[in-house]
Q: What sequence folds into this?
């Protein structure tokens, strides 16, 4: 063999060795669970036995019994099944944290982060980087001598200002309690026991607050986080509130706002019907009045409606990407009500409304990007539409006017829809004032145009919602009987799906059998209308109000007539809602399901348990039925 | 003759190493997708949307697999709802997404039994399913959602009001 051949062989061996080394580095040996960790958490020891360490970084198996305990304790949910690539963890905020097998990237809500190590599989079990997982649960793993301690963290303290009022929303990895440790007219200090933090420092002042300082003290096992708020003169600290277990709301009111409204600002992007300018809202000085600004989702975009009463000019400006702010100044106007500052859902990030000088109201929007926007005068003021699409080369400024001339021109069918004609031929469809699109109405003809079927919701083995010893089934039967008596007195024939506290189909039947039995009652007799009476309920006491549900095109006019009268029932009117409800869907005649009020809400509960109120509601439904019958008479049916 | 051959081999080795390094360190860039997650406001009807990022498909992840992952991620986000500071109609505590699959343009979302734990009114049911249907049908190619509860297709929730044994569409709400 020549030396050339020998050299070639040597080099080939060298190459082979190098390639083996590269392969070994790129393809690590299969991981295995190789250790366990015991850690103190909330006064008890949690043992994590599905732990694997790679390159000094611990990872924990999703089937670890200790992790299951920890997830329950922190109110988190882990979603994964063998074969799935993504491991999803929903924490107590709630925010979804997304891990993927083989990828160091993990996403915490909208934020993409890098873990020290990628999740991996050992057999059929996914292993997640432990430090990042704990951090996403708002926990930190500390050493106290030889003992590992899982320390809940105060992970966020959001400061918001609304006029003089400042609110601080604290969130942590444990159920939080704010203990007042010091209070003077100038400062107040809250302590969160058992909670550590890395949020030390201060927050910028504003409104009723001069400064906010966060500090951490105590020991690894018994940490204390303190929040000290320096108050402006006359500011008042409200009692801490717990909107949810892991959240505490601290509210500081200015001397003016202390008596001006509820203790906590609304974080809700709540019900927001298009604001109407209030008649006579124009100010005494001849200035126009900005009486309200509301934000509503519209498909993937957002509609912002600015209610302006009186004549005014406006001027708008828009900054360039990446500073995606937009504002419109309503000149010659004054704002009615408190300034508004609130966060919104994308593509609108935040909204601010304030009086910037004695004759100018500014509406400022912060957008998620260079979004497609339109701004135009409307019948009620100004309408801004923000689309989901990014655009370029948009105009940067503009001017216009709002007022009576514009309003008169803009007002039209979209604002005041023509009454629906129930006798209209099919094929035209219908649109109600909230913009629902329906298909054509049916050609339903009642066998007995004088007959109405009333359906008292639930009953028998199904009591419906229940609070304070009062059941939905009792209340719906009571209101249905009152309604029956009123209708009979007006000359209607009435059939009830149930007259007593019984199941309509049979005890302990399925929900479908029970609902179908109620539908059958109405369909078999060919009633003119079907009205189902219900009482609402929810998992918390917040929601209240009356809602009328429908499903079919035929239901719209009946629901609208009933809802119009129920709007005066003393609780909030949540209008008409289209849904896929069994009884309104499968009844052949015009139907409406009235959720009269919330048994789960204290003020609605007081109404529902009042016989006078139930009589009032029955009267209003009867009035609505009467109005519907007058507006849409059927041949051979005398006007009621 | 000897020297050039050795040089060629070394150069070849360097080229292979450089190529390997380039391929490993320059994976194709992917644009980040965002998903619109809907929730129903406390008026029981109007919707709001939050945007979340969806990780880009990994090399070797098929379009079908990525769509499956997207469905699952969006469903978990919809069931989680927005942060607690935002008032919204929320699924009953503990409700989990057990599975997500696709048949044609209908997504099937399997929810855990906790979804049964409604407080008895139409309000929660309507708001929860409306938000879930809007979220899933915001994904390209999806226009209906079939709800399963603990793996089974139910006619309605126990004591419920909404018909669930057929796929739900946006037009149902």
A:
């Amino acid at each position: 063999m020549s030396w050339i051949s020998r050299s070639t062989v040597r080099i080939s061996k060298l190459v082979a060795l190098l390639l083996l080394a590269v392969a070994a580095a790129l393809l690590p040996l299969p991981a295995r669970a190789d250790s366990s960790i015991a850690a103190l958490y909330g006064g008890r020891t949690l043992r994590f036995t599905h732990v694997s360490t790679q390159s000094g970084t611990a990872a924990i198996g999703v089937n670890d019994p200790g992790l299951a305990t920890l997830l329950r304790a922190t109110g988190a949910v882990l979603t994964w099944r063998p074969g799935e690539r993504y491991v999803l963890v929903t924490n107590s905020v709630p925010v979804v944290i997304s891990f993927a097998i083989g990828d160091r990237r993990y996403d915490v809500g909208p934020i993409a982060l890098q873990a020290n190590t990628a999740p991996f599989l050992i057999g059929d079990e996914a292993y997640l980087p432990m430090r990042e997982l704990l951090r996403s649960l708002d926990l930190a793993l500390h050493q106290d001598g030889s003992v590992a301690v899982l320390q809940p963290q105060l992970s966020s303290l959001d400061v918001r200002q609304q006029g003089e009022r400042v609110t601080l929303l604290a969130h942590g990895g444990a159920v939080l309690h704010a203990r007042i440790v010091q209070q003077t007219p100038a400062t107040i200090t809250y302590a969160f026991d058992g909670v550590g933090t890395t949020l030390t420092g201060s927050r910028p002042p504003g409104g009723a607050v001069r400064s906010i300082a966060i500090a951490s003290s105590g020991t690894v096992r018994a940490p204390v986080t303190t929040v000290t708020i320096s108050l402006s003169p006359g500011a008042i600290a409200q009692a801490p509130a717990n909107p949810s277990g892991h959240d505490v709301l601290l509210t500081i009111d200015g001397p003016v706002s202390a008596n001006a409204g509820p203790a906590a600002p609304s974080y809700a992007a709540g019900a927001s019907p298009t604001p109407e300018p209030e008649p006579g809202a124009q100010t005494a000085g001849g200035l126009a009045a900005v009486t309200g600004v509301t934000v509503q989702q519209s498909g993937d975009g957002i509609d912002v409606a600015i209610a302006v009463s009186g004549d005014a000019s406006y001027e708008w400006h828009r900054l360039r990407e990446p500073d995606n702010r937009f504002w419109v100044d309503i000149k010659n106007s004054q704002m009615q009500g408190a300034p508004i500052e609130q966060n919104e859902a994308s593509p609108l990030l935040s909204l601010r409304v304030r009086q910037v000088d004695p004759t100018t109201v500014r509406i400022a929007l912060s957008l998620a990007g260079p979004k497609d926007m339109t701004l135009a005068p409307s019948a009620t003021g100004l309408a801004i539409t923000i689309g989901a699409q990014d655009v370029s080369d948009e105009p940067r400024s503009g001017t216009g006017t709002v007022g009576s001339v514009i309003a008169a021109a803009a007002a039209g069918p979209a604002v005041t829809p023509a009454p629906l004609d129930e006798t209209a031929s099919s094929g035209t469809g219908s649109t109600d004032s909230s913009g629902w699109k329906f298909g054509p109405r049916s050609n339903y003809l009642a066998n007995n145009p004088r007959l109405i079927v009333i359906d008292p919701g639930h009953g028998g083995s199904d009591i419906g919602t229940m609070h304070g010893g009062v059941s939905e089934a009792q209340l719906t039967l009571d209101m249905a009987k009152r309604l029956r008596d009123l209708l009979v007195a007006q000359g209607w024939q009435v059939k009830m799906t149930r007259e007593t506290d019984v199941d309509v189909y049979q005890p302990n039947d399925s929900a479908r059998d029970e609902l179908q039995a109620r539908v059958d009652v109405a369909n078999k007799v060919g009633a003119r209308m079907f009205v189902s009476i219900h009482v609402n309920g929810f998992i918390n006491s917040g929601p209240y109000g009356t809602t009328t549900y429908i499903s079919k095109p035929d239901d719209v006019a009946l629901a609208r007539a009933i809802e119009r009268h129920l709007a005066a029932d003393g609780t909030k009117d949540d209008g008409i809602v289209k849904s896929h409800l069994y009884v309104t869907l499968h009844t052949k005649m015009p139907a409406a399901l009235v959720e009269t009020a919330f048994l789960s809400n204290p003020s609605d509960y007081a109404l529902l348990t009042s016989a006078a109120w139930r009589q009032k509601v029955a009267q209003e439904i009867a009035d609505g039925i009467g109005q519907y019958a007058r507006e849409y008479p059927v041949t051979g049916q005398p006007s009621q | 003759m000897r020297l050039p051959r050795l040089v060629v081999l070394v150069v070849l080795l360097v080229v292979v190493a450089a190529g390997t390094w380039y391929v490993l360190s320059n994976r194709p860039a992917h644009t980040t997708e965002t998903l619109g997650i809907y929730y129903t406001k406390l008026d029981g009807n109007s919707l709001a949307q939050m945007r979340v990022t969806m990780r880009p498909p990994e090399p070797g992840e098929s379009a079908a697999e990525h769509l499956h992952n997207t469905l699952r991620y969006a469903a978990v986000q919809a069931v989680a709802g927005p942060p607690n500071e935002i008032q919204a109609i929320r699924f009953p505590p503990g409700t989990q997404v057990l599975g997500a699959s696709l048949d044609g343009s209908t997504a099937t979302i399997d929810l855990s039994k906790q979804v049964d734990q409604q407080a008895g009114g139409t309000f929660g049911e309507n708001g929860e399913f409306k938000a879930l249907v809007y979220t899933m049908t915001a994904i390209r190619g999806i226009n209906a959602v079939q709800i399963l509860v603990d793996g089974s297709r139910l006619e309605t929730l126990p004591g419920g009001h909404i018909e669930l044994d057929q796929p739900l569409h946006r037009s149902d709400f």
User: Anything to note?
Assistant: Chain A touches chain B through 92 residues (CB under 8 Å). Chain A has ten helices and 43 strands. The two ends of chain A are 116 Å apart (CA to CA). The first helix of chain A runs from residue 3 to 26.
